[in-house]
Amino acid sequence: MFHGSGLFALLLMVLEWTRPGLSSPLRPICDLRVLDHFIKEAWDAEAAMIACKDACSIATNFTVPLTTVDFDVWDAMKIEEQAQEVQSGLHVLNEAISSLQISNQTDVLQSHIDASISNIASIRQVLRSLSIPEYVPSSSDGEDMEMQKVSSISELFQVHINFLRGKVRRLLTSAPVCRQGVS
Amino acid sequence: MRNDRLKIVFVLCLAFVSTGGQHLESKVAQLLQDKAEDIKCFVEGKDLTCFWEEEEERNNLHDQYTFTYSYENKKKMACVVSSLSLLASNKTVFFCKLPKTPFFTTLVVQVYRDAQMLYSRSLNAENFLFLDPPRNLTVTNSGKEGQLNVSWLPPPLKYMDDSLIYEVRYAMEGSNMGKVEVIKVSTMLVLLGLQSDTRYKVWVRVKPDGVAYKGYWSAWTEPVFGVTPPGDMDPLIVVLVLFIGLILCLLSLTVILSHHKFLLKKLWPDIPTPEHKFPGLFTVYKGDFKEWMSQNNGSIWGRSVHVYAEELPSPLEVLSEVSLTGHATSQREERKPVEEEEEKESERSDSRLTDRWREPPHAHWLMEQLRALQDNPESLSQSSLLQSHDTYVTLNQGDNERQDDDVFEETVPLQTLFTTAGTSSLSTSRSDLGSLQQSSGSGRLSSQSSFEYPNHTWPPKGPGYAYMAVADSGVSMDYSPMSSSRIAELGKHRMYTNDYKNDIFPHKWPLSGQHIKSGSGSCTGTVW
User: Fold this and answer.
1) Burial profile B407-429: b = 16 or more Cβ within 10 angstroms, e = fewer
2) Which of A78, B174, B437, B442 is most buried when burial is the number of CB atoms within 10 A of its CB?
3) Which intervals of the chain form a coiled coil (chain A) (predicted)?
4) ipTM of the complex model
5) What pLDDT, on the 0 to 100 scale, is given for residue B295?
6) Does B427 have pLDDT greater than 60?
C-alpha cells in the first residue's frame, strides 16, 4: 500500500512537472499603464484613419463588437460574463482588422494595422496573466454576443479604440487578482 | 392621492435640483461660453447632462422642448427637459440629464421643439467629463527656505484615480501674476523657488488625462494661503564674500611686501646726514668738530680739495685768488668758519663762529666796494667788485629769462639793503651776501654770471646785473647760531649738486681749503 501511494505521488509529481502544452503561469500585470500604452497607439491609428478619407473608403462590411458600457449594468455583471464579452470582442476585432492586411494599403496605414493586431495579442496576454478565462467560441449559437456592422475603416478603428477604452479597461481595473493585492 | 404623489415628486425634484443646482449652475455657466456647439454636454459623475440656451423670447414653458438620444442604432429614447435660470448672466437654459448614460459608444442627441428638430449632436460621453474640483487642499510649511508643500484629495470617482491630471496655480498675495505647475496622478506637490517670508495663494484643478477618458478642466478650488519660512543669509553668499575678502587681503599684502622698501622710503624718508662725508666725526670724536679738524686737518681737506679740484672750481676761488694777499688769509680764515658753520650741525662751534663772524676784518672793505658799485653801475668790468669771497655767483643754467627774473627779484632786497647799509644789521647783510644761488645739473657757468679774471670783460647786462654778484636769491643765510630748525629748513629746499662746467677756468685751483664745496651741505645757500 505504501508503495502504491508513493508511486502515485511520484507519478503526479512527474506529470505536474512535465505538464504538456501549458506554460508557466504569468505574473499578473495589474498596471494600467500597459493598457494605456496600447490605447494611445489605438488613438494614433484612429486619427490616421480619419485623416485618410479617400484611400480608406472601402465598401466592406466589418463585424465588430459592441462597445457600449453602462457602468451600473457592467458592475453588476459577473467576472466571467465580463471576460467572455471582452474576449469575444477582441477575437472579432482581430478578425476584422486582419482582413485589412490582405487589401493593398499605404505603408503608414499598414503599420497602424500591424500595430493594432500585435496590441490585441498583447492584451490577450495581459488578460491571461490576470487569470481571466480565454475566449471560447460558443458552439450553441452562431452569434450569442451582440455585434454590429460598420462600413468604413475609420468606423472600424473607432470601434477598436472605444472597445479598448471601455470594456477592456473596465475589466482590467476590476480584475480580482489585482484587487486582492490592493486590499 | 395622485396629486399628492405628484407633489412629493415635484418637491423632491426641487430639492434635488437645488442641492445639485449649485454645481450644475456653475458648470453650466462655465460651459456657456463655448459657442462651438448648440447643445453643450458634460458628464458629471456617471450621468451625461446636455443643455441649450433659450433661443428667443418665448414663454419659459419647458414642455415645448423634446430631448431624445440614441446609440448603436437603437430606438430613440426621451429625456425630461428642465429649465435653469442663471442669476449671474440673467439667462435661462434648458437641460436634460440622461438616466442611463452609455459610454464608449456614439451617442446621438437631438432637441425638438414642437416636433421640429432644433439641434442635433453626436458625441461619445466619455470624452466630456466635467469633474468636480479637488477636495481638502492644504498648504503647509516644509521648513525649508522658499518651499511650500501642497496636497489635496481627488474628486470621488471610481477607478479613475490613476488617470487624472492636476494643475496647481500659485501667486503672491495681492499679485495677479501666478505660475502654473502640471502634475500627473500624484496628489501632492512641493513648490520651489519661492520668496522667503511671503504669503502665497494656491489653487488646484483637475482633468482626465485623455488616454481612457477626456474632459474639461474642473473649476479652481478656493484659494488656500501659505507663508514661506523666513530666509536667513544664504550660506553660499557668506562663504563667497569671505573668500573674496581673503583673496583681496592676500593680494594687498603681497603688493605691500613686494614694494615695502619703496613705500617705506615714501612714507618715512631717511633724513640725510653728512656723516659719510666726515668719517669718524660722530663716532670717534663725538661730534667735536674742532678736534676732528685738528686730527684730520691736512689730509682731509687736502684730499677733498684734490677731489674737488677735479671738478670745476667755483668762482669763489677765483675771487679769492685775484684779491689782494692782505685779504687772502683773512678771507681764508673767514671762509673756514663759514664752511664749517654750514657743514656742521652741532651747536658747539656755533658760538665760536658767530663771534668771529660778527667782526670780520674785511667787512668794512666790502661795504666800500659795494658803495662804489652803486655809484658806478657801469664799472662792472671791475673785477675788484667781485673779489670778495662773500659775494656769490649765480650760476646760469641757460634759462636766461628765468634767471633774469630771479635776478631782478633778488636784487631788490639787496638794493634796499645797500641803501640802508652801514652799521645796521651787518650780520643781516652778511647773511644776504652769504647766500648763494646755485643751479642744479650740469649747468653751464655762463660768462654772465661767472667771476672772471680781470682781463675778462663782463658783458653788460643791465643795472640789475651789477647786483647780481652780490645778489642773493632771496634766500638769506643766517649765520647766527645755526639751529636745528634752520638746518631742517635748509634741508627742505632743494639742494642742487654742483656739477656745472666752468669753461672759463679750465685749470684747477691749487688752493687748499679755499674751494668751497658746492653741494648739499656746503656753504652754498639754498635754492628756493
Assistant:
1) bbebbeebeebbeebeeeebbbb
2) B437
3) none
4) 0.80
5) 77
6) no
